[in-house]
Amino acid sequence: MKLSLFIFVLFFTVTPISAHFFPNITSIPTSLIPNTTLWDGFSQFLGSHKGQKVNGLAKLKNYFQRFGYISSSSSANFTDDFDEILESAVKMYQINFNLNNTGELDVQTLKHIVLPRCGNPDVINGTSTMNSGKPQTNSTIHTVAHYSFFPDKPSWPASKTELTYSFLPDNQLTENVKSLFGRAFERWSEVTPLTFTETSSFLRADIKIGFFSGDHGDGEAFDGILGTLAHAFSPPLGLFHLDGDENWVMDGDFINASPLSAVDLESVVVHEIGHILGLGHSSDEAAIMYPTISSGMRKVELTNDDIMGIQQLYGSSTNSNYSDPILTPRNERDSNGAHYLVCLFWSHGIILAIGFFLFL
């Protein structure tokens, strides 16, 4: 009863959106293709470094704060000074994404910053383990693990291998869209003992999926076309939110053309399911769990890094032939774990109920 009340508060006191789905990139109306994207303005900071003052740097500091590179306890009234705080954030970002660690805003760093990405932060409490590649020990096979987990390594209970998922009814998704989600879930069930079944009972489903626009009640507001695409919470919350303002493409064919704003839906869904199952971000650019994805890019196949990570949590599927060595990285300090969720919204009245309802 209490859990149902919580879900009602979170999903039904905000207005869901009828998301934009297109069968292919050529069907996207020109009116929905922007000339610039949310973070394109950051390109003006090229070459900026510590000691300078550049108009607009305060917005870049907000970006880094959103993804954990600047502490949430820092003042939100940022200045345009390239100070030690910003330099430290830039350096940590460069390390996480395997860029040249200079602390300056060079071409490669800015090109990466403006990419669309998952809304889950990379750093919490000043600690990041995204770049946590650890060589295997006691083996002649040279393997490096880049996968990570949420704090305390949460997962679905061992007794619960049959998970259900449902879609927010007000989104009125077509069967084609729902079947795409089904394919994405299958990619994870192929390498684990887990199974996923759609149910019509939204409140009773283990995994609840919804498309929203802007502020939708969980403290992680969406920002329109590109920018942050989606976010999901660690088990056992099972909350999976996508930005309804994106131009979601269904067929993933980007060979002939690639509009600036086209986002492959299945690629994003496969990534967020990884979070729902307990994986954090990976520093392996080829991995599904890498935080960013370019518009017009399709990436849906699990890599060895993704498979090693998920099998650390659940073991392998009885039908899986995957037998590469399993490595244990440190936990990712990702801010979408349940404990962080409670702390983040401590002063936000109605959302304070999240931790209370879910853990009674």
UniProtKB/TrEMBL annotation:
Residues the entry annotates as binding Ca(2+) 1: 170, 246
Signal peptide range in chain numbering: 1-19
Binding positions (Ca(2+) 3): 223-224, 243, 246
One Pfam family from the record: Peptidase_M10
One BP annotation, GO: collagen catabolic process
One GO MF term attached to the UniProt entry: metalloendopeptidase activity
Positions occupied by motif Cysteine switch: 116-123
Cofactor: Ca(2+); Zn(2+)
Record has Metal-binding as a keyword: yes
Residues where Ca(2+) 2 binds: 206
Cofactor: how bound: Can bind about 5 Ca(2+) ions per subunit. Binds 2 Zn(2+) ions per subunit.
Domain named Peptidase metallopeptidase: residues: 152-316
InterPro entries: M10A_MMP, MetalloPept_cat_dom_sf, Pept_M10_metallopeptidase, Pept_M10A, Pept_M10A_Zn_BS, Peptidase_Metallo, Peptidoglycan-bd-like, PGBD-like_sf
Family under the similarity heading: Belongs to the peptidase M10A family. Matrix metalloproteinases (MMPs) subfamily.
Protein name: Peptidase metallopeptidase domain-containing protein
Organism: Fraxinus pennsylvanica
